[in-house]
Design brief:
Number of helices: 4
Oligomer: single chain
CATH class: Mainly Alpha
Number of domains: 1
Strand order of the largest sheet: 1-2
Strand content: 15-25%
Helix content: 25-40%
Order of helices and strands: EEHEHEHH
CATH architecture: Orthogonal Bundle
Number of strands: 4
CATH topology: DNA Binding (I), subunit A
Low-confidence stretches: 1-21
Structural class: alpha+beta
Largest sheet: 2 strands, antiparallel
Length: about 100
């Protein structure tokens, strides 16, 4: 499927189609605050301390599989862990953490 000029808008480092595909997804502020209160500013997978500018919000089960953003499907992750995990599916965050620690480069 090709994207015509009327179907997308250019943004800095992000191409977004009119249906929202490619959009950076984040949990609602209330969920972000709940996760930060529960885990502090630590990556869910490697325990690295993150500054607010370093936060990435990971879908524990990838959005592509769910097609939705349930409140309990979010984790705070560093950019490295989030990109390494990608769209892999794990039974739990602990399984993802174990996999990422074993495959660390």
């Amino acid at each position: 499927m090709s994207i015509s000029g009327a179907d997308y808008e250019r943004r800095p480092s992000l191409l977004t189609t009119s249906n929202g595909a490619g959009r950076k997804r984040r949990p609602p502020k209330r969920i972000q605050q709940m996760i930060l209160k529960r885990n502090g500013s630590l990556c869910a997978y490697c325990d690295a301390y993150l500054l607010p500018a370093e936060y990435t919000w990971d879908h524990i089960t990838p959005y592509a599989y769910l097609g939705a953003n349930p409140d309990n499907n979010w984790a705070l992750a560093c950019r490295r862990c989030n990109s390494r995990k990608g769209s892999l599916v794990f039974a739990s965050a602990a399984d993802a953490r174990d996999y990422l620690s074993r495959t660390a480069a």
